[in-house]
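Review this chain:
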Amino acid sequence: MTNFLPWKILHLDLSQTIPDLAIAPGYQGLYLVFWWKTIPLGHRELVSAQLPMPASQVAHLAAQTITPAIGRHWLKQGFIPNLVANLNKPDPKQAPPQFADLLAIEHPLHELPAHLSPPDSQETISIVICTRDRPQALARCLQSIAQLSVTPNEILVVDNAPTSDATRDLVAQMPQVRYVLEPQLGLSYARNAGIAHSTSDIIAFTDDDVEVHSDWIAHLRWGFVEPEVMVVTGLVLVSELASESQWLFERYWSFNRGYRRKVFDRAFFEQTRSQGVPAPCIGAGANMACRRAAFEHLGGFDVRLGAGASGCSEDSEFWYRVLAAGKSCIYQPTAIVYHAHRATLHSFNAQINAYMRGYVAASLIQAQQHFHWGNLYPLVVNLPKYYLRRLLFGLAIGFQPGDKTLKAEVSGYLSGFGYYLRRCLFSSSQTLPPDRQSSSLETHAHPVNLSCNTREI
Protein backbone atom coordinates (compact mmCIF):
# COMPACT_ATOMS: atom_id res chain seq x y z
CA MET A 1 0.00 0.00 0.00
CA THR A 2 2.26 2.75 -1.29
CA ASN A 3 1.44 6.45 -1.10
CA PHE A 4 -1.02 5.81 1.67
CA LEU A 5 -3.72 8.41 2.25
CA PRO A 6 -5.77 8.49 5.47
CA TRP A 7 -9.45 7.67 5.60
CA LYS A 8 -11.97 10.14 6.93
CA ILE A 9 -14.30 8.64 9.53
CA LEU A 10 -17.81 10.06 9.23
CA HIS A 11 -20.57 9.20 11.70
CA LEU A 12 -24.02 9.63 10.14
CA ASP A 13 -27.09 9.81 12.37
CA LEU A 14 -29.93 8.61 10.15
CA SER A 15 -32.49 10.30 12.41
CA GLN A 16 -31.15 13.58 11.05
CA THR A 17 -31.21 14.87 7.48
CA ILE A 18 -29.01 12.67 5.32
CA PRO A 19 -26.40 14.81 3.56
CA ASP A 20 -24.84 14.65 0.13
CA LEU A 21 -21.34 13.23 0.40
CA ALA A 22 -18.66 15.35 -1.22
CA ILE A 23 -15.18 14.34 -2.29
CA ALA A 24 -12.78 14.48 0.65
CA PRO A 25 -9.52 16.00 -0.64
CA GLY A 26 -6.42 14.41 0.84
CA TYR A 27 -8.26 11.24 1.91
CA GLN A 28 -8.39 7.74 0.45
CA GLY A 29 -12.12 7.77 1.03
CA LEU A 30 -14.84 7.80 3.67
CA TYR A 31 -15.36 5.29 6.44
CA LEU A 32 -19.06 5.71 7.18
CA VAL A 33 -20.64 4.58 10.45
CA PHE A 34 -24.44 4.60 10.39
CA TRP A 35 -26.37 5.30 13.59
CA TRP A 36 -29.91 5.85 14.66
CA LYS A 37 -29.40 8.33 17.48
CA THR A 38 -27.22 6.37 19.96
CA ILE A 39 -27.62 2.97 18.30
CA PRO A 40 -24.82 1.87 15.89
CA LEU A 41 -26.18 -0.06 12.92
CA GLY A 42 -23.36 -0.68 10.47
CA HIS A 43 -20.46 0.78 8.51
CA ARG A 44 -19.35 1.08 4.88
CA GLU A 45 -16.20 2.19 3.10
CA LEU A 46 -16.42 4.54 0.12
CA VAL A 47 -13.28 5.17 -1.90
CA SER A 48 -12.83 8.60 -3.45
CA ALA A 49 -13.81 7.25 -6.88
CA GLN A 50 -17.34 6.64 -5.53
CA LEU A 51 -17.71 10.27 -4.51
CA PRO A 52 -19.51 12.61 -4.69
CA MET A 53 -22.68 10.76 -3.75
CA PRO A 54 -26.15 12.34 -3.54
CA ALA A 55 -28.22 11.98 -0.39
CA SER A 56 -30.71 9.65 -2.11
CA GLN A 57 -27.94 7.19 -2.93
CA VAL A 58 -26.51 7.51 0.59
CA ALA A 59 -29.93 6.65 1.99
CA HIS A 60 -30.12 3.57 -0.26
CA LEU A 61 -26.62 2.49 0.81
CA ALA A 62 -27.53 2.99 4.45
CA ALA A 63 -30.70 0.90 4.10
CA GLN A 64 -28.70 -1.99 2.65
CA THR A 65 -26.07 -1.73 5.37
CA ILE A 66 -28.29 -1.50 8.44
CA THR A 67 -30.99 -4.07 7.59
CA PRO A 68 -29.24 -7.04 9.30
CA ALA A 69 -28.77 -5.08 12.54
CA ILE A 70 -32.34 -3.76 12.50
CA GLY A 71 -33.68 -7.26 11.94
CA ARG A 72 -31.57 -8.67 14.76
CA HIS A 73 -32.68 -5.98 17.19
CA TRP A 74 -36.37 -6.57 16.52
CA LEU A 75 -36.75 -10.26 15.67
CA LYS A 76 -35.74 -13.39 17.55
CA GLN A 77 -35.09 -15.38 14.39
CA GLY A 78 -33.89 -14.80 10.86
CA PHE A 79 -31.14 -12.23 11.38
CA ILE A 80 -28.95 -14.06 13.89
CA PRO A 81 -25.33 -14.06 12.65
CA ASN A 82 -23.77 -17.44 11.93
CA LEU A 83 -21.29 -18.01 14.73
CA VAL A 84 -19.65 -21.03 13.10
CA ALA A 85 -19.01 -19.59 9.65
CA ASN A 86 -15.29 -20.06 10.22
CA LEU A 87 -15.84 -23.83 10.30
CA ASN A 88 -17.35 -23.80 6.79
CA LYS A 89 -20.54 -25.53 7.79
CA PRO A 90 -24.05 -24.15 8.30
CA ASP A 91 -25.53 -23.46 11.69
CA PRO A 92 -28.50 -25.84 11.95
CA LYS A 93 -30.30 -23.41 14.27
CA GLN A 94 -30.08 -20.53 11.84
CA ALA A 95 -33.36 -19.54 10.17
CA PRO A 96 -33.52 -17.53 6.92
CA PRO A 97 -34.11 -13.78 7.24
CA GLN A 98 -37.79 -12.94 7.76
CA PHE A 99 -37.98 -9.72 5.76
CA ALA A 100 -41.80 -9.75 5.80
CA ASP A 101 -41.81 -9.75 9.60
CA LEU A 102 -39.35 -6.87 9.65
CA LEU A 103 -41.42 -4.84 7.18
CA ALA A 104 -44.51 -5.44 9.32
CA ILE A 105 -42.99 -3.37 12.12
CA GLU A 106 -44.50 0.06 11.58
CA HIS A 107 -41.57 2.27 12.57
CA PRO A 108 -38.56 0.00 13.21
CA LEU A 109 -36.04 2.85 13.33
CA HIS A 110 -38.08 5.45 15.20
CA GLU A 111 -39.03 2.99 17.92
CA LEU A 112 -35.57 1.45 18.18
CA PRO A 113 -34.17 3.63 21.03
CA ALA A 114 -37.14 2.80 23.25
CA HIS A 115 -36.94 -0.87 22.26
CA LEU A 116 -33.25 -0.95 23.21
CA SER A 117 -33.48 1.16 26.35
CA PRO A 118 -31.63 -0.73 29.11
CA PRO A 119 -33.85 -1.68 32.06
CA ASP A 120 -33.05 -0.56 35.58
CA SER A 121 -30.61 -2.83 37.35
CA GLN A 122 -29.71 -3.20 41.00
CA GLU A 123 -26.40 -4.88 40.26
CA THR A 124 -23.39 -2.77 41.13
CA ILE A 125 -20.65 -2.22 38.57
CA SER A 126 -16.99 -1.24 38.80
CA ILE A 127 -14.76 0.03 36.01
CA VAL A 128 -11.14 -1.15 35.90
CA ILE A 129 -8.62 0.59 33.60
CA CYS A 130 -5.18 -0.99 33.43
CA THR A 131 -2.37 1.30 32.30
CA ARG A 132 1.38 1.65 32.11
CA ASP A 133 3.21 4.92 31.49
CA ARG A 134 0.56 6.48 29.23
CA PRO A 135 -0.93 9.30 31.31
CA GLN A 136 -2.08 11.38 28.34
CA ALA A 137 -4.10 8.53 26.84
CA LEU A 138 -5.41 7.63 30.31
CA ALA A 139 -6.58 11.21 30.86
CA ARG A 140 -8.68 11.04 27.67
CA CYS A 141 -10.12 7.70 28.74
CA LEU A 142 -11.07 9.00 32.19
CA GLN A 143 -12.56 12.14 30.69
CA SER A 144 -14.89 10.02 28.57
CA ILE A 145 -15.82 7.89 31.59
CA ALA A 146 -16.77 11.07 33.44
CA GLN A 147 -19.47 11.61 30.78
CA LEU A 148 -21.23 8.27 31.28
CA SER A 149 -25.02 8.41 31.46
CA VAL A 150 -24.95 5.81 34.27
CA THR A 151 -22.51 6.48 37.08
CA PRO A 152 -20.45 3.39 37.99
CA ASN A 153 -20.16 2.43 41.62
CA GLU A 154 -16.39 2.82 41.48
CA ILE A 155 -13.56 3.52 39.04
CA LEU A 156 -10.16 1.93 39.55
CA VAL A 157 -6.95 2.72 37.70
CA VAL A 158 -4.39 -0.08 38.00
CA ASP A 159 -0.88 1.26 37.45
CA ASN A 160 1.13 -1.69 36.15
CA ALA A 161 4.86 -1.63 36.97
CA PRO A 162 5.20 2.11 36.25
CA THR A 163 8.53 3.79 35.58
CA SER A 164 7.34 7.17 36.86
CA ASP A 165 4.77 8.78 39.15
CA ALA A 166 2.86 10.38 36.24
CA THR A 167 -0.18 8.10 36.50
CA ARG A 168 -0.32 8.38 40.29
CA ASP A 169 -0.17 12.18 40.02
CA LEU A 170 -2.94 12.22 37.42
CA VAL A 171 -5.28 10.04 39.47
CA ALA A 172 -4.54 12.07 42.59
CA GLN A 173 -6.38 14.97 40.92
CA MET A 174 -9.53 12.83 40.53
CA PRO A 175 -11.13 12.03 43.88
CA GLN A 176 -13.73 9.78 42.24
CA VAL A 177 -11.01 7.44 40.93
CA ARG A 178 -9.11 4.90 43.06
CA TYR A 179 -5.43 4.24 42.37
CA VAL A 180 -4.06 0.70 42.62
CA LEU A 181 -0.37 -0.06 42.15
CA GLU A 182 0.47 -3.48 40.71
CA PRO A 183 4.28 -3.82 40.73
CA GLN A 184 4.38 -7.13 38.84
CA LEU A 185 4.56 -6.45 35.09
CA GLY A 186 1.79 -8.00 33.01
CA LEU A 187 -1.76 -7.15 31.97
CA SER A 188 -3.17 -10.23 33.65
CA TYR A 189 -1.51 -9.25 36.94
CA ALA A 190 -3.03 -5.78 36.54
CA ARG A 191 -6.51 -7.05 35.74
CA ASN A 192 -6.39 -9.50 38.63
CA ALA A 193 -5.39 -6.63 40.92
CA GLY A 194 -8.43 -4.73 39.67
CA ILE A 195 -10.64 -7.70 40.48
CA ALA A 196 -9.10 -8.05 43.94
CA HIS A 197 -9.62 -4.42 44.88
CA SER A 198 -13.04 -3.82 43.34
CA THR A 199 -16.24 -4.39 45.28
CA SER A 200 -19.06 -4.65 42.72
CA ASP A 201 -21.18 -7.46 41.30
CA ILE A 202 -19.97 -6.72 37.76
CA ILE A 203 -16.48 -5.62 36.75
CA ALA A 204 -16.07 -3.75 33.46
CA PHE A 205 -12.63 -3.58 31.86
CA THR A 206 -11.26 -1.15 29.32
CA ASP A 207 -7.85 0.08 28.22
CA ASP A 208 -6.13 3.44 28.48
CA ASP A 209 -6.15 3.88 24.66
CA VAL A 210 -9.94 3.76 24.60
CA GLU A 211 -12.67 6.37 24.92
CA VAL A 212 -16.10 5.12 25.94
CA HIS A 213 -19.55 6.01 24.65
CA SER A 214 -21.82 7.73 27.16
CA ASP A 215 -24.17 4.70 27.31
CA TRP A 216 -21.37 2.13 27.55
CA ILE A 217 -21.99 0.98 31.12
CA ALA A 218 -25.78 0.93 30.79
CA HIS A 219 -25.67 -1.45 27.84
CA LEU A 220 -22.90 -3.65 29.25
CA ARG A 221 -24.89 -4.18 32.42
CA TRP A 222 -28.02 -4.92 30.38
CA GLY A 223 -26.25 -7.93 28.90
CA PHE A 224 -26.30 -9.62 32.31
CA VAL A 225 -30.09 -9.80 32.54
CA GLU A 226 -29.92 -13.62 32.23
CA PRO A 227 -28.23 -15.27 35.24
CA GLU A 228 -26.21 -17.75 33.14
CA VAL A 229 -24.41 -14.90 31.35
CA MET A 230 -20.95 -14.47 32.90
CA VAL A 231 -19.27 -12.23 30.31
CA VAL A 232 -20.49 -9.38 28.12
CA THR A 233 -18.36 -7.79 25.41
CA GLY A 234 -19.22 -4.80 23.24
CA LEU A 235 -18.57 -3.02 19.97
CA VAL A 236 -15.13 -1.48 19.44
CA LEU A 237 -15.15 1.29 16.83
CA VAL A 238 -11.93 2.67 15.40
CA SER A 239 -11.30 6.26 16.48
CA GLU A 240 -9.03 7.26 13.60
CA LEU A 241 -7.58 5.90 10.36
CA ALA A 242 -4.77 8.40 9.94
CA SER A 243 -1.91 5.96 9.30
CA GLU A 244 -1.33 2.89 7.17
CA SER A 245 -0.94 0.69 10.23
CA GLN A 246 -4.29 1.81 11.63
CA TRP A 247 -5.99 1.07 8.34
CA LEU A 248 -4.37 -2.36 8.04
CA PHE A 249 -5.37 -3.24 11.59
CA GLU A 250 -8.98 -2.25 11.03
CA ARG A 251 -9.15 -4.05 7.69
CA TYR A 252 -7.53 -7.34 8.73
CA TRP A 253 -7.46 -7.49 12.54
CA SER A 254 -10.37 -5.34 13.64
CA PHE A 255 -11.83 -5.53 17.16
CA ASN A 256 -15.22 -4.73 15.58
CA ARG A 257 -17.38 -7.86 15.87
CA GLY A 258 -20.35 -6.41 14.03
CA TYR A 259 -23.63 -4.70 14.87
CA ARG A 260 -25.76 -7.70 15.75
CA ARG A 261 -26.08 -9.23 19.20
CA LYS A 262 -24.45 -12.65 19.53
CA VAL A 263 -24.95 -15.37 22.11
CA PHE A 264 -22.07 -17.76 22.78
CA ASP A 265 -23.45 -20.59 24.88
CA ARG A 266 -23.03 -24.30 25.59
CA ALA A 267 -24.43 -25.22 22.16
CA PHE A 268 -21.86 -22.98 20.45
CA PHE A 269 -19.08 -24.50 22.54
CA GLU A 270 -20.06 -28.09 21.77
CA GLN A 271 -20.56 -27.39 18.07
CA THR A 272 -17.10 -25.85 17.64
CA ARG A 273 -15.12 -27.84 20.18
CA SER A 274 -13.84 -30.55 17.79
CA GLN A 275 -12.02 -28.01 15.61
CA GLY A 276 -11.14 -25.42 18.24
CA VAL A 277 -13.63 -23.04 19.84
CA PRO A 278 -12.99 -19.59 18.28
CA ALA A 279 -13.12 -17.77 21.62
CA PRO A 280 -11.40 -14.60 20.28
CA CYS A 281 -14.50 -14.01 18.15
CA ILE A 282 -16.46 -13.23 21.32
CA GLY A 283 -15.07 -9.70 21.54
CA ALA A 284 -12.12 -7.67 22.76
CA GLY A 285 -10.65 -7.22 26.20
CA ALA A 286 -10.76 -3.45 25.70
CA ASN A 287 -14.54 -3.67 26.03
CA MET A 288 -15.71 -6.43 28.34
CA ALA A 289 -17.44 -6.97 31.65
CA CYS A 290 -17.56 -10.06 33.85
CA ARG A 291 -19.57 -11.19 36.83
CA ARG A 292 -17.59 -11.37 40.03
CA ALA A 293 -19.11 -14.84 40.53
CA ALA A 294 -17.25 -16.05 37.44
CA PHE A 295 -13.89 -15.09 38.95
CA GLU A 296 -14.84 -16.60 42.29
CA HIS A 297 -15.51 -19.99 40.71
CA LEU A 298 -13.09 -20.04 37.78
CA GLY A 299 -10.20 -17.90 39.02
CA GLY A 300 -8.90 -14.73 37.43
CA PHE A 301 -6.87 -14.11 34.29
CA ASP A 302 -3.99 -16.48 33.62
CA VAL A 303 -0.81 -14.49 34.29
CA ARG A 304 1.12 -16.58 31.76
CA LEU A 305 -0.99 -14.87 29.09
CA GLY A 306 -1.58 -11.28 28.06
CA ALA A 307 0.60 -8.24 27.43
CA GLY A 308 3.82 -8.45 29.37
CA ALA A 309 3.75 -12.26 29.17
CA SER A 310 2.61 -14.27 26.12
CA GLY A 311 1.41 -11.11 24.38
CA CYS A 312 -2.37 -11.53 24.40
CA SER A 313 -5.30 -13.99 24.78
CA GLU A 314 -5.68 -13.75 28.55
CA ASP A 315 -9.22 -12.51 27.87
CA SER A 316 -10.26 -15.18 25.35
CA GLU A 317 -8.77 -17.94 27.54
CA PHE A 318 -11.00 -16.76 30.38
CA TRP A 319 -14.02 -16.70 28.06
CA TYR A 320 -13.13 -20.27 27.06
CA ARG A 321 -13.25 -21.31 30.72
CA VAL A 322 -16.67 -19.71 31.07
CA LEU A 323 -18.01 -21.64 28.07
CA ALA A 324 -16.37 -24.87 29.24
CA ALA A 325 -18.21 -24.43 32.54
CA GLY A 326 -21.51 -24.41 30.65
CA LYS A 327 -22.18 -20.69 31.01
CA SER A 328 -22.68 -17.98 28.38
CA CYS A 329 -20.92 -14.96 26.91
CA ILE A 330 -22.83 -12.20 25.13
CA TYR A 331 -21.64 -9.78 22.47
CA GLN A 332 -23.68 -6.60 22.97
CA PRO A 333 -23.00 -4.14 20.10
CA THR A 334 -24.86 -1.27 21.76
CA ALA A 335 -22.09 -1.14 24.42
CA ILE A 336 -19.58 0.99 22.52
CA VAL A 337 -16.00 2.17 22.93
CA TYR A 338 -13.60 3.87 20.50
CA HIS A 339 -10.10 2.46 20.15
CA ALA A 340 -6.92 4.15 18.92
CA HIS A 341 -4.95 1.60 16.88
CA ARG A 342 -1.15 1.56 16.72
CA ALA A 343 0.11 4.47 14.62
CA THR A 344 3.31 2.98 13.15
CA LEU A 345 4.00 -0.13 11.10
CA HIS A 346 6.78 -1.12 13.50
CA SER A 347 4.52 -1.12 16.56
CA PHE A 348 1.72 -2.74 14.54
CA ASN A 349 3.96 -5.64 13.50
CA ALA A 350 5.12 -6.08 17.08
CA GLN A 351 1.49 -6.17 18.19
CA ILE A 352 0.53 -8.82 15.62
CA ASN A 353 3.55 -10.90 16.54
CA ALA A 354 2.40 -10.81 20.16
CA TYR A 355 -1.17 -11.64 19.17
CA MET A 356 -0.13 -14.80 17.36
CA ARG A 357 2.24 -15.86 20.15
CA GLY A 358 -0.50 -15.38 22.71
CA TYR A 359 -3.11 -17.17 20.62
CA VAL A 360 -0.91 -20.24 20.18
CA ALA A 361 0.03 -20.31 23.88
CA ALA A 362 -3.62 -19.93 24.96
CA SER A 363 -4.75 -22.72 22.62
CA LEU A 364 -2.14 -25.08 24.02
CA ILE A 365 -3.06 -24.14 27.59
CA GLN A 366 -6.73 -24.81 26.84
CA ALA A 367 -5.89 -28.21 25.39
CA GLN A 368 -3.75 -29.12 28.39
CA GLN A 369 -6.06 -27.71 31.04
CA HIS A 370 -9.33 -29.18 29.78
CA PHE A 371 -8.12 -32.12 27.66
CA HIS A 372 -9.96 -30.52 24.74
CA TRP A 373 -7.70 -31.58 21.91
CA GLY A 374 -9.73 -29.73 19.31
CA ASN A 375 -7.73 -26.67 20.36
CA LEU A 376 -4.77 -28.18 18.51
CA TYR A 377 -6.62 -28.38 15.19
CA PRO A 378 -6.18 -24.70 14.21
CA LEU A 379 -2.51 -24.85 15.23
CA VAL A 380 -1.47 -27.96 13.33
CA VAL A 381 -3.92 -27.90 10.41
CA ASN A 382 -5.62 -24.57 9.69
CA LEU A 383 -2.80 -22.11 10.34
CA PRO A 384 -0.03 -23.98 8.50
CA LYS A 385 -2.29 -24.35 5.45
CA TYR A 386 -3.35 -20.71 5.70
CA TYR A 387 0.20 -19.34 5.88
CA LEU A 388 1.48 -21.64 3.14
CA ARG A 389 -1.36 -20.53 0.87
CA ARG A 390 -0.64 -16.85 1.53
CA LEU A 391 3.07 -17.34 0.90
CA LEU A 392 2.58 -19.22 -2.38
CA PHE A 393 -0.07 -16.78 -3.55
CA GLY A 394 2.20 -13.84 -2.79
CA LEU A 395 5.16 -15.38 -4.60
CA ALA A 396 3.01 -16.22 -7.60
CA ILE A 397 1.06 -13.03 -8.22
CA GLY A 398 2.33 -10.55 -5.66
CA PHE A 399 1.83 -9.92 -1.97
CA GLN A 400 -1.24 -8.03 -0.80
CA PRO A 401 -1.43 -5.14 1.72
CA GLY A 402 -2.46 -7.56 4.47
CA ASP A 403 0.76 -9.49 3.93
CA LYS A 404 2.80 -6.67 5.46
CA THR A 405 2.37 -8.52 8.75
CA LEU A 406 2.97 -12.01 7.32
CA LYS A 407 6.50 -12.30 8.71
CA ALA A 408 5.36 -11.05 12.13
CA GLU A 409 2.42 -13.49 12.10
CA VAL A 410 4.50 -16.54 11.24
CA SER A 411 7.21 -15.54 13.71
CA GLY A 412 4.62 -15.09 16.45
CA TYR A 413 2.93 -18.38 15.55
CA LEU A 414 6.21 -20.28 15.84
CA SER A 415 7.35 -18.48 18.98
CA GLY A 416 4.03 -19.34 20.65
CA PHE A 417 5.08 -23.00 20.80
CA GLY A 418 8.43 -22.08 22.31
CA TYR A 419 6.80 -19.78 24.84
CA TYR A 420 4.40 -22.53 25.89
CA LEU A 421 7.21 -25.07 26.32
CA ARG A 422 9.33 -22.63 28.36
CA ARG A 423 6.69 -20.91 30.45
CA CYS A 424 3.49 -22.94 30.50
CA LEU A 425 3.92 -26.68 30.05
CA PHE A 426 5.19 -27.41 33.55
CA SER A 427 3.65 -24.46 35.38
CA SER A 428 0.15 -24.05 36.71
CA SER A 429 -1.92 -20.98 35.95
CA GLN A 430 -1.77 -18.23 38.53
CA THR A 431 -4.74 -16.11 39.41
CA LEU A 432 -5.53 -13.63 42.11
CA PRO A 433 -8.14 -14.42 44.78
CA PRO A 434 -10.95 -11.94 44.09
CA ASP A 435 -11.94 -11.57 47.75
CA ARG A 436 -8.96 -9.31 48.54
CA GLN A 437 -10.08 -5.72 48.79
CA SER A 438 -8.39 -2.48 49.69
CA SER A 439 -9.69 0.54 51.52
CA SER A 440 -6.58 2.60 50.96
CA LEU A 441 -5.72 4.85 48.02
CA GLU A 442 -2.72 2.73 47.07
CA THR A 443 -2.47 -1.02 47.37
CA HIS A 444 0.05 -3.65 46.32
CA ALA A 445 -1.27 -6.84 44.73
CA HIS A 446 0.77 -10.04 45.01
CA PRO A 447 -0.85 -12.95 43.10
CA VAL A 448 -0.77 -16.43 44.53
CA ASN A 449 -1.22 -19.81 42.86
CA LEU A 450 -4.77 -20.84 42.12
CA SER A 451 -5.52 -23.51 39.57
CA CYS A 452 -8.12 -22.52 36.97
CA ASN A 453 -10.92 -25.02 36.84
CA THR A 454 -14.42 -25.47 35.48
CA ARG A 455 -16.40 -25.88 38.67
CA GLU A 456 -20.11 -25.16 38.44
CA ILE A 457 -20.98 -21.47 38.64
